[in-house]
TrEMBL record:
<dbReference type="InterPro" id="IPR001930">
    <property type="entry name" value="Peptidase_M1"/>
</dbReference>
<keyword id="KW-0482">Metalloprotease</keyword>
<keyword id="KW-0862">Zinc</keyword>
<dbReference type="Pfam" id="PF01433">
    <property type="entry name" value="Peptidase_M1"/>
</dbReference>
<feature type="domain" description="Peptidase M1 alanyl aminopeptidase Ig-like fold">
    <location>
        <begin position="437"/>
        <end position="528"/>
    </location>
</feature>
<dbReference type="Pfam" id="PF17900">
    <property type="entry name" value="Peptidase_M1_N"/>
</dbReference>
<keyword id="KW-0378">Hydrolase</keyword>
<keyword id="KW-0479">Metal-binding</keyword>
<dbReference type="InterPro" id="IPR035414">
    <property type="entry name" value="Peptidase_M1_pepN_Ig-like"/>
</dbReference>
<dbReference type="Pfam" id="PF11940">
    <property type="entry name" value="DUF3458"/>
</dbReference>
<feature type="domain" description="Peptidase M1 membrane alanine aminopeptidase">
    <location>
        <begin position="218"/>
        <end position="431"/>
    </location>
</feature>
<dbReference type="InterPro" id="IPR027268">
    <property type="entry name" value="Peptidase_M4/M1_CTD_sf"/>
</dbReference>
<dbReference type="InterPro" id="IPR024601">
    <property type="entry name" value="Peptidase_M1_pepN_C"/>
</dbReference>
<dbReference type="InterPro" id="IPR042097">
    <property type="entry name" value="Aminopeptidase_N-like_N_sf"/>
</dbReference>
<protein>
    <recommendedName>
        <fullName>Aminopeptidase N</fullName>
        <ecNumber>3.4.11.2</ecNumber>
    </recommendedName>
</protein>
<dbReference type="InterPro" id="IPR037144">
    <property type="entry name" value="Peptidase_M1_pepN_C_sf"/>
</dbReference>
<comment type="similarity">
    <text>Belongs to the peptidase M1 family.</text>
</comment>
Length: 849
């Protein structure tokens, strides 16, 4: 069994630390098995402290020596940390500990990845490096000396000295320990420079292992664009002499915003046309921006405690989405974000893992780096901006920086600056932070004598621990279209505050067609009776591109729902609308690609479930197949031409426009493959000079079960490139027919290049299995068993990555009793594992309850 009684931490129990940390000096003597960390920390007791107990966190540390004001002391050490008698006046704490980076497979604290030392401290990893008050509200300046044989020795802040075998760094900005970082290795840099708007010259570097130096240019450009954008849009400037980014192969997450020394999963920074897809390029640009933006939203202003995580993450995701909208197409970005939100956050919010945007309790904070904190947290900021207006938003955010720079803050502080600068009462709005669950809005309408009335009724289903919900303030952006498709009322934001409320529009010549929830103005599920004819009308005429896409998406969903429930043939009107749209060259290719992309299998399962049906993953898969086949056949005559016309010629460029064209082209190829068995795909594979086209062709061929030659060729070509091999591993599972997905994944876990210890490789296989819905849920439960086997194996090595992957089971209650019993058995088996981590234990028990 897991730890006897896992401890639950509550927001309401927050108490400040009783000591001020004035300065931190750290010296690292690096050695793979026995790194020595010497700390010298100046503490001042706080005169007004409620709690004066001196507790320093510390885990898996071997204490060699401890002193207070130069005198040896013998603290009481437990598995969680130490306590010690300390003076009531300012004192200097010194300690020396020994740690073993090379055996650290959890990838938290100081560890090694391909021979280089690196750290990951968020959320609570610093306590695995030395004894410290490891909490975000304890901020201090750090001076770090690194001694080691590696060519490159990096830490936060500015370099303050170096010599043969050592380097010293000083970070003048007070920071919490979770932003500490150290890197040491034989690395190569891709350098550049940036001059801030006030004329400060900043040295920029992307550090990589030898061999990867030709994959840094795109990331560097993205960094420079981000620095410029934050100055232009938020007025925020960089504040050190140097900004370093390091690429690391073994990393639990995407990237980390350590002050002045961002550490990236190599998959989120390294890019080249030959090895990266368009999607990779876009994601890399966004993540570089995200981490850079944290320099202000997260680092200069940080979180008081981990319950406030969305304070930095929601805001920073919101900022990076603004950046991507500005760099690329705002409407394409919005549509993609909503697809992602529905796929991940709605699944979370409507199942056993539902939690508040600001949770009030947790056992393991690492389990709360979720779509709810990040993506719903960003949606909440988008709603706030919509409610107060753009100008008021800018003013309030400026006040936030002015008032709170250098502090560790709460959501209350954030909302207060909006209240103070706008005079608006945000108490009802704050429910978006305190109430979990996705609100439903039921819409009915009525037209009489030139007046059109919309009635909106809101309710939120119960979530674990929160049976009853109050009405929230929900911004619902609405426009009205006349019968000829012209807009008769431009977008207006209705503020829904009551459980049920009506809004009238008068002076209308005839009954309008409403376009509701434009730009997806709130993260809600809208329920409204409509017809396919009306949806097709909106798809053709709505001036709001999100809602045009949404109309098409709803048509696509309804067509498949009818196929699943009534064995209906694919809806003819919809097929007709689609074939027209595909051929309409006046439309943005990226938009056409999005309209053509089918609703996810998981989204369909959730829709069926909400309507009282038990979703059958195989039936959903079959409907999708039939639909695509029918569409391909309806397009028989034009597909070869459409495919040729959308093929991007010339040298590869990752810009948004070319990427949109290639996306549409890939959809044409996948339809065409249904007709030609893979001839065009094989040709594209042979001719491809970039990964986007190579990858797309291979996916089509594998899906058609006609890609063995190319899969082998791909392997031979790329076996030396870890990131490309992740694609190879993932594609085999993602493109497997449902019946074969689990065995394909099982075989891959036996492959010589499968490595449980590398999170990217683990996710490539197990993540792809979980995403292949019909394969994962294939009758018999082999997928469940395989995932559970691998989760159990990984938990002993890497609890964080294991726990995150458990969410593959979060939707289990949607399914039939046979599947539920199969899943329950696996969850119980995981739960009964000896020495199960706190991370996985918490996830599994929440999912089971
Ligand atoms: N703070 C990181 C980000 O969002 C994510 C992260 C969390 C990385 C925990 C590592 C560990 O940018
Ligand atoms: Zn972040």
């Amino acid at each position: 069994m897991a730890e006897a009684t896992p401890q639950t931490i509550y927001l309401k129990d927050y108490t400040p630390f009783g000591y001020q940390v004035d300065e931190v000096h750290l010296t690292f003597h690096l050695s793979p098995k026995a790194t020595r960390v010497v700390s010298r920390i100046e503490f001042t007791p706080k005169p007004d402290a409620v709690d004066r107990s001196f507790f320093l966190h510390g885990e898996q540390l071997q204490l060699i020596a401890a002193k207070i004001d130069g005198q040896p002391v013998s603290p009481d050490v437990t598995a969680q940390g130490l306590t010690c008698d300390v003076p009531s006046t300012p004192f200097v704490w010194e300690s020396e500990v020994e740690i073993s980076p090379v055996t650290n497979t959890a990838l938290e604290g100081l560890y090694m990845s391909n021979g280089m030392y690196c750290t990951q401290c968020e959320a609570e990893g610093f306590r695995k490096i030395t004894f410290y008050p490891d909490r975000p509200d304890v901020m201090s300046t750090f001076t770090v000396r690194i001694e080691g044989d590696e060519k490159v020795l990096l830490s936060n802040g500015n370099p303050s000295g170096s010599g043969e075998g050592w380097a010293e760094w000083h970070d003048p900005w007070p920071k919490p320990a979770y932003l500490f970082a150290l890197v040491a290795g034989d690395l190569i840099n891709h350098p550049d420079r940036f001059t801030t708007k006030s004329g400060k010259d900043v040295e920029l570097n992307i550090w990589v292992r030898p061999g990867d130096e030709d994959k840094c240019a795109f990331g560097m450009e993205a960094l420079i664009k981000s620095m410029k954008w934050d100055e232009d849009v938020y007025g925020l400037e960089y504040d050190l002499d140097i900004f370093n980014i390091v690429a690391v192969d073994d990393f639990n997450m995407g990237a980390m915003e350590n002050k002045g020394l961002n550490i990236f999963n190599s998959s989120c920074v390294l890019a080249s046309p030959e090895t990266s897809t368009d999607a990779n390029f876009e994601r890399i640009e966004a993540i570089i921006a995200h981490e850079y933006f944290h320099n202000w939203t997260g680092n200069r202003i940080t979180c008081r405690d981990w319950f406030q995580l969305c304070l930095k993450e929601g805001l920073t995701v919101y900022r990076d989405s603004q950046f991507t909208s500005d760099m690329r197409s705002a409407s394409v970005k919005r549509i993609s974000d909503v697809i992602d939100l529905r796929g991940r956050q709605f699944a979370e919010d409507n199942g056993p893992l539902a939690h508040q945007v600001r949770p009030e309790s947790f056992q393991e904070i690492n389990n709360f780096y979720t779509a709810t904190i990040y993506e719903k947290g960003a949606e909440v900021i988008g709603m706030l901006k919509r409610l107060v207006g753009d100008e008021a938003y800018t003013k309030a955010v400026a006040l936030y920086f002015e008032r709170h720079d250098g502090q560790a803050c709460t959501i209350e502080d954030w909302l207060q600056v909006f209240e103070d600068s706008t005079g608006r009462d945000l108490s009802q709005f704050s429910k978006w932070y305190s109430q979990a669950g996705t609100p439903r809005i039921k819409v009915t309408d009525d037209y009489l004598d030139g007046t059109y009335t919309l009635t909106l009724e809101q309710s939120t289903p119960a979530t674990p621990g929160q049976p009853d919900k109050d009405p929230r303030v929900i911004p619902v952006a609405v426009g009205l279209l006349g019968q000829n498709g012209d807009e008769v009322r431009g977008t207006e934001v209705l503020e829904l505050t009551e459980a049920k409320q009506s809004f009238s529009f008068d002076g209308l010549a005839s009954k309008p067609v409403p376009s509701i929830l434009r730009e997806f103005s709130a993260p809600v599920i809208m329920e409204r009776e409509s017809t396919n004819a009306e949806r097709a009308f909106l798809l053709a005429h709505d001036s709001d591109s999100f809602n045009r896409w949404e109309a098409g998406n709803t048509l696509a969903k309804e067509a498949r729902v009818a196929m699943v429930l009534d064995a209906a043939a694919p809806d003819a009107d919809y097929l007709d609308a689609l074939t027209k749209l595909v051929r309409d060259d006046s439309l943005d290719p990226a938009f056409r690609a999005l309209v053509l992309s089918p609703p996810s299998q998981s989204d369909l399962a959730q829709t069926l479930f909400e309507r009282g049906h038990t979703p059958d993953p195989q039936a959903i898969y079959d409907a999708a197949e039939t639909f695509a086949q029918t569409l391909a056949e309806a397009l028989t005559d034009s597909l070869p031409r459409l495919y040729a016309d959308t093929t991007v010629q010339g040298a590869y460029s990752p810009d948004a426009e070319s990427a949109g064209k290639r996306d549409l082209n890939a959809r044409m190829l996948s339809l065409l493959t249904r007709l030609d068995g893979g001839e065009a795909a094989a040709r594209q594979y042979d001719a491809a000079d970039n990964m986007t086209q190579q990858n797309a062709a291979l996916a089509c061929l594998l899906k058609a079960e006609n890609g063995e030659t190319q899969s082998q060729a791909f392997y031979d070509q790329w076996q030396g490139d870890r990131l490309v091999m992740d694609k190879w591993f993932g594609l085999q599972v993602a493109c497997s027919a449902p019946k074969k997905a689990a065995s394909a994944a099982a075989n891959l876990t036996e492959h010589a290049l499968f490595d449980l210890k590398n999170p990217n490789r683990f996710r490539a296989v197990m993540g792809a299995l979980a995403m292949n819905q019909a394969g994962f849920h294939y009758e018999g439960g082999a997928g469940y068993q395989l995932l559970a086997d691998n989760l159990i194996a990984l938990d002993a090595l890497n609890p964080q990555t294991t726990a995150r992957m458990c969410s593959a089971f979060q939707t289990w209650k949607r399914y039939d009793s046979t599947r539920q019993e199969l899943i329950r058995a696996q969850l119980e088996r995981i739960s009964a594992t000896n020495n199960l981590s706190r991370d996985t234990n918490e996830m599994v028990s929440r999912i089971l309850n």
